Amino acid sequence: MLNSLSLSHASWIAAPSVGGPQCGVVAPCLRKAFDLSRPVQEATLSITALGLYECEINGRNISDFVLAPGWTNYDRRVHVQSFDVSQLLHVGENAMGAILGDGWYCGFLAWKSRQLYGDRPKFIAQLDLTYADGTTDRFVSDQSWKTAGSAILQNDLLAGEIYDARLEQPGWSSGGFDDSTWLPVMVIPAPDIALETSPAPPMRRIQELKPVSVQSKLTDGKWITQVDFGQNFSGRVRMTVSGATGQTLTLRHAEMLNPDGTIYVDNLRGIRATDFYTCREDGAATWEPVFTFHGFRYVEVSGLNKDQAFSLVGVVLHSDMEVTGSFSCSSPLLNKLQQNILWGQKSNFLDVPTDCPQRNERLGWTGDAQVFVRTAAFNMDIQGFFHKWVQDLRDAQKPNGGVPAVAPDRNFLGDLTDGGPAWSDATIICPWTIYLCYDDRKILADHYDSMRRYLDFLAAHRCKDFIRSHPDVDHWGGFGDWLALDGSGKTEGCTPRDLIGTAFYAYDAELMCKIAGILGHTGDALRYASLHEDVVRAFRHRFVTPEGLIASGTQTAYVLALRFNLIPEEARAVACRQLVRDIESRDFHLSTGFVGTPHLLDVLTERGRLDVAYRLLEQETFPSWLFPVKNGATTIWERWDGWTPEKGFQDKGMNSFNHYAYGAVGAWMYRTVAGLDLDPDLPGYKHIIFRPRPGGSLTSAEASLTTAHGKVAISWEQDAATFRCEITVPVGCRATFFPPYDNLSSLAFGPGNHPFSQPVKT
Ligand code: BGC
Is 383 helix (H, G, I), strand (E, B) or coil? Predict the structure, then answer.
């Protein structure tokens, strides 16, 4: 992909056909033939769409990007792609052709209808040429392009694609094609939005999966074939079939199976998640939909005849981020948990960090991203991806400074001006985390004004006497400790919303004080330091007894108070004891939701209860991280009890089997089990903290991370007598190693591989 980008001479164009709020129309093809009289040396195509596009020049795809140009707040900006296409051109008649899909722009979005941004997809392209003789030329999208229908009769990102191969028009994107029956395109007034390159990597086909089982069964006189890929993922299938003209195959996607072995689709909340393919002629054909993706493990295929030649490949799609981290240890169950976390990340990082990839939702929920961002940065290089999403947050910010619950936003949550505690705070926590992991001041500088406005909004509209989500001024108060198990069945759990709100307000102020200092805004830094003091004081006054007991007594209340340092040092031991008492009373089970869970094990570790942290991590019965693993999960479930042997499936209204939020425990496994972390005072792993903390049943662990400086790694093993460890420090970095069995001394290391051993003390 090239950096130059220019669409200054091109016009926005579209097909005349338009769908409605409930139903789309055939995906339009747009084409333009053009003559090249002499050889081309350089050719740059700048291109984008409001909607999705697939573009070919002379019958060949211009790139391997999928679902381009991705999702932004389209009323503010759309991303432009630029490609070197010189190899696709030749002297003589050439042609460029684009098929447009509805995508996020005018397809179904979340639980809403279609056409939330516009009524039809729109397209713009500019081809800038330099001939071998040094002269230049240009071809642009304009009124001279022509349009016709395609074989894609209907397409929807969420619902699926309907494809009739009999309608294919061979040669449509090459020179010499007869387009005399095609219609003129419409030229659309240029939208008043920014056209710019994306800081995020493009989405691509990253991986292919082979089925682990294919079973056919005669049901009501029809053959139903069920394919299991053995892995829940986001993407679609590529199908090869030898069919008869007009034969239609139906492919339904699902994450789970019903007790009777049929696919379970109730949790998709009515979204079809089905593709249809009609065969063109007798003989083998290969097809993959292009303008949709599904979240699934199983595909049910109907319409096949007995023993008909047919095969499927699972095509995994996500933003093309480098896998930078690895974690493994002596527990196969924890290794599976780590794999499930990684798959959750893959499945939900398609241009926007989403809650889930399967049901009628798939939104950039701020809370979920905030919870998971640290873990995500261990697994993959997410720097560019989050630069893009933090821009989405800025674009979605309300005029009064409120940050919505989702970004990009299209008024999904109606009148809510902010997403509430632990959700909107993503606007501070995510850039801060990217700064720490990549030594990235730019993301802080880019976002500073937005963060400042957000904190001003909280002060003006959400707080009274420094209590955020104060019931006198905020009648909603946020999503609470979402899906916690201590709320008698209520999704928001039992931790008071003003407690969560005030805890996060204090944390925001603390981070903003640091951020202002880093960026040299000294006055602001002082202001936020004093705000932090005021909020902590208010928190103590309202929620903490002098002995260290905390209102509501939930695990999450204790976790937040301890993690964000909201209670006096002398009361922390009592608070931790209360937390442990609650965990013990549940026979070493957690009860936390989205808000408390990411910090639970850190708090126990910091307060000297590593033993309890390991018991929770290795707990195999419900509720725990390993309960889904023991029950066959291949991704992280949205709910601790998404499925139980006693009750079967949880409420179909909200039961995703591919939600990364509880996967936030991954950061603890890297940082504490393996012992690989950064130093917040010297971010970006310039100074590496190695602090392995063996515990539980583990006898070994290892983690590695590719950083800007090179590979950082640690591996340890121990038997009853000896702990052995080796660390790797890249050139230009230094490390501090904390031996697990002697808390008082630490060792300094420079670049290189360093072995270390010490006796095990019990
Ligand atoms: C989403 C969550 C999200 C929540 C808000 C749900 O529908 O799936 O992950 O954070 O709403 O509480």
Answer: helix
**50-99: pLDDT as tens digits:** 999 999 999 999 999 999 999 999 999 999 999 999 999 999 999 999 99
Q: Are the beta carbons of 470 and 464 closer than 8 angstroms?
A: yes
Over the stretch 377-411, which tens digit does the pLDDT of each residue have?
999 999 999 999 999 999 999 999 999 999 999 99
pLDDT of residue 489: 78
CA separation (Å) from 408 to 354, 371, 391? 10, 18, 9
**Residues near 156 by Cβ (< 8 Å), separated by ≥ 6?**
24, 102, 107, 108, 114, 272, 291, 292
365 close to ligand 1 (CB < 6 Angstrom) = yes
* Residue of 112, 348, 368 to mutate, ligand 1, most atoms within 8 A of C-beta: 368
* Ligand 1 pocket check for 689: Cβ under 6 Å: no
Tell me which residue has its CA closest to atom 9 in ligand 1.
355
Residue 467, pLDDT score:
98
**Ligand 1 pocket check for 564: Cβ under 6 Å:** no
Domains and CATH numbers, the chain: 12-153+165-198 (2.60.120.260), 205-319 (2.60.120.260), 325-674 (1.50.10.10), 677-759 (2.60.420.10)
Cβ–ligand 1 distance for 662 under 6 Å, the answer: no
Gap between the Cα atoms of 660 and 319, Å rounded? 16
- Output the six-digit token pair for 469: 């989500």
pTM for the model: 0.97
Residue to mutate, 479, 483, 656, ligand 1, most ligand atoms under 8 Å from C-beta: 479
Please tell me the predicted confidence (pLDDT) of residue 281.
79
Q: Each residue of 476-488: pLDDT tens digit? A: 999 999 999 997 7
- Which entry of 361, 510, 702, 717 is annotated as an active-site residue? 361
pLDDT digits (tens, 9 = 90+) for 299-317: 999 999 988 989 999 999 9
Nearest CA to ligand 1 atom 1: 355
In ligand 1, the atom with minimum distance to the C-alpha of 366 is: 10
Amino acid letter for position 706 = T
| Residue 383 φ/ψ, nearest 5 degrees | -60, -55
361 as an active site residue: the answer is: yes
Nearest atom of ligand 1 to the alpha carbon of 659: 9
638 is catalytic: yes
Reported as a pLDDT band with limits 50, 70 and 90, residue 717 is very high
- Does residue 367 line the site of ligand 1, with CB under 6 A? yes
- AA letter at 386: F
* Reported confidence tier of residue 27, pLDDT bands at 50, 70, 90: very high
Q: Which atom of ligand 1 is nearest to the CA of 355?
A: 9
Instruction: For 93-107, give the secondary structure using H, E and C.
Output: EEEEEEEEECHHHHC
Q: What percent of the chain has pLDDT over 70?
A: 99
Q: Which pLDDT score is estimated for 2?
A: 39
CA distances 97 to 56, 60, 88, 278, 623, Å, are: 5, 10, 13, 23, 53
Helix (H, G, I), strand (E, B) or coil at 311: strand
Q: Is the CB of 484 under 6 A from ligand 1?
A: no
Tokens in use for 598? 């990411």
CA distance 246 to 224: 18
Task: Place 184 in a pLDDT band, splitting at 50, 70 and 90.
Answer: very high
Please give the pLDDT value at position 4. Answer: 41
How far, in Å, CA of 584 to CA of 623, rounded?
13
Residue among 161, 618, 638, 717 flagged as catalytic: 638
Exposed (0-12), middle (13-18) or buried (19+): which is 335, by Cβ within 10 Å? middle
Under the banding of pLDDT at 50, 70 and 90, the label for residue 5 is low
The stretch 686-707 carries a mean pLDDT of: 98
Q: Using a 6 Å cutoff on CB, does residue 492 contact ligand 1?
A: no
d(CA 182, ligand 1 centre) in Å: 45
Tell how far the Cα of 642 is from the centroid of ligand 1, in angstroms: 14
